[in-house]
């Protein structure tokens, strides 16, 4: 199901058919370094990740992490979406892209559209974002889309930067 449409991108729900892409994305060095090793090593692992993560959140919340595809050629390039974690009081925005497609404005384009979607379509008053202390690219992107740095928090024994956007 298509959720968002930008100048160059389509954001849509993930399905088990996206397992090969998810397997590649979750094993990118930048994913493992900044997000963490999810232990996804096979297509079956990737399908389980999609079903138990994004698809479960779609059914519970009406949103989740979305596939980001380039309109030109329907090429999958990353994920961007809204996540409700048990460990945070508010929904947060998350994103990750294949290294081939980083630094081309796709993160900004999809994250700014997702933030607007969260505030306007999902009526979320406050949206958070977290990033590792050393992930300067993500911190810069969050500030560029209008999120404000609020300090650091400890989440799952890891010190992270916390950003927020208020409606």
TrEMBL record:
One family name in Pfam for this protein: Acetyltransf_3
Gene3D superfamilies attached to this UniProt entry: 3.40.630.30
N-acetyltransferase domain boundaries: 9-167
The organism's place on the tree of life at top rank: Bacteria
PANTHER family: GNAT FAMILY, PUTATIVE (AFU_ORTHOLOGUE AFUA_3G00765)-RELATED-RELATED, N-ACETYLTRANSFERASE DOMAIN-CONTAINING PROTEIN
Protein name, UniProt field: GCN5 family acetyltransferase
Organism: Cytobacillus oceanisediminis
């Amino acid at each position: 199901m298509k959720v968002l449409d930008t100048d160059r991108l389509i954001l849509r729900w993930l399905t088990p058919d996206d397992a090969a892409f998810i397997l590649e994305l979750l094993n990118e060095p930048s994913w493992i370094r900044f997000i963490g090793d999810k232990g996804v090593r096979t297509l079956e692992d990737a399908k389980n990740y999609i079903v138990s993560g994004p698809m479960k959140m779609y059914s519970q919340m009406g949103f989740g992490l979305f596939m980001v595809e380039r309109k030109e050629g329907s090429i999958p390039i990353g994920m961007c979406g809204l996540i409700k974690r048990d460990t945070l009081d508010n929904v947060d925005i998350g994103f990750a892209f294949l290294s081939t497609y980083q630094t081309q404005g796709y993160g900004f384009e999809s994250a700014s559209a997702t933030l607007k979607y969260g505030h306007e379509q999902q009526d979320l008053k406050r949206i958070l974002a977290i990033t590792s202390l050393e992930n300067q690219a993500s911190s810069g992107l969050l500030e560029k889309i209008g999120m404000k740095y609020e300090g650091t928090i400890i989440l799952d024994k890891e010190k992270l930067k916390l950003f927020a956007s208020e409606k």
